[in-house]
Structures are given as C-alpha cells and as structure tokens.
Amino acid sequence: QVQLVESGGGLVQAGGSLRLSCAASGRTFSSSAMGWFRQVPGKEREFVAAITWNGGSSKYADSVKGRFAISRDNAKNTVYLQMNSLKAEDTAVYYCGLQSPPYGLRITSDQYEYWGQGTQVTVSS
Description:
Blueprint (H helix, E strand, L loop, with lengths): L2 E5 L2 E4 L4 E8 L8 E6 L6 E6 L6 E3 L7 E6 L4 E6 L8 E8 L12 E4 L3 E6 L1
C-alpha cells in the first residue's frame, strides 16, 4: 500500500511562488513515475506535470510550462512542484499521484493508481 501526503499549499498573490511537496510511503516510490494534477469545483482533474522514476524526464501542461518545475528526491521519498509566476487561474486543489505500471509521462488521471488528499492553492489577483 502507498500513502501520499501533500503539503505546501496556501494563499499567495499573483506573481508569487509556492513549492508543493508530496511525501510517499511504501517501497514502490523510487521505481514509479509521479505526477501532479489540479482540480477546481465542477471540473475534471487536470494534468499539471509528470516525472519519470529517476527524474530524468518530465512533462508539463502547456498552461504551466516555463513557470512550474517538477522534481523528486528518491532518498526522501518526496516529489516537489515549484510554482513560480503564479496566476489567478492556477487556483485549485493540487494532487500528487503515483502512476500505475507501465510507467511513463502519463497525462490522464485514470493512469494513476494512488492519490494524496490534495492541498489548496489560492492565488489572489
């Protein structure tokens, strides 16, 4: 069983930065691709970023490319999302997910097997 716990969300002004963390328990973390998604009420969960098991490759949604950066530290069982130049439209609950095998840079939520509880990010304009 895998447990994921997000942290680092909060209220920030437009143009500001936040770093989200996702701490994982379970032995599969270091061999699994990971992703970040976000969701606003009434909408489907939206892909934000994904990273391979060793951090060698990553993929981003067009809406965050150049502003957000995903990274991981397998020694700490943690994946991060650095968010810069935040905009009001980035306001959402952010979730980290652990992919189901086979692993890759998957962008749909149904390809992820485990999820955290989410952390709220609110960007004021």
